[in-house]
């Protein structure tokens, strides 16, 4: 890894341009990833929001699923937002039977989880380890995390309107496990680059020789 890490943004669908802008604002170089050769050089990868069932299909069509799985298994840092969070989970509830995910984070994610109450909403989220006050969370047909496995750190929660869950602190909407992190919300649609900064810092720390 050079002094400036190179972060890929999976560019099959979704908010690619906004993530690239946020990655650059966080001091890294952003490159769109559509094919296997583009994956080789990146130090980390953002998997944007969109539609996880479509993304799963497109990953197969572009012959990217297996190469990406390999890089994740080898420890490449990744940040998944919304549909990207679903793609990183090892268990997906309310998914389509043929939808695949990478299992990079041991967690159970429920698709369109807030849909029963509200399709889309915004809420301030206190994120563990983030200075500067709550992050403005924009949720769009968002998933939540129902189970976290060993080694998964909960970074943020939100009230869901579901009494018992809220009494327990709210639904889990941001997690981190090793070099991977995921948010239910879309940090790329706000001008606040702190979540991307958090990821870029993780990528920097993950590189053995962060400076060449
Ligand atoms: N509901 C979408 C899915 O299941 C995720 C929505 C989003 O990424 N904004 O993939």
Task: Give an overview in words.
The chain is of the alpha/beta class. It has a single domain (3-211), classed as Rossmann fold. The protein is 27% helix and 30% strand. It has 7 helices and 12 strands. It has helices at residues 16-25, 36-40, 52-61, 65-73, 83-88, 163-167, 194-206, and strands at 6-10, 29-33, 44-47, 78-81, 89-93, 105-110, 120-125, 135-140, 144-148, 153-158, 171-177, 180-183. The strands form 3 sheets. A 7-stranded mixed beta sheet has the order 2-1-3-4-12-11-10. A hairpin with a 2-residue loop joins β11 (171-177) and β12. The longest helix is centred in the C-terminal third of the chain and has 13 residues, at 194-206. The chain is globular, with a radius of gyration of 16 Å. Mean pLDDT is 93; it is low at 208-212. Bound molecules: glutamine (GLN). The site of glutamine has 11 residues, from α5.
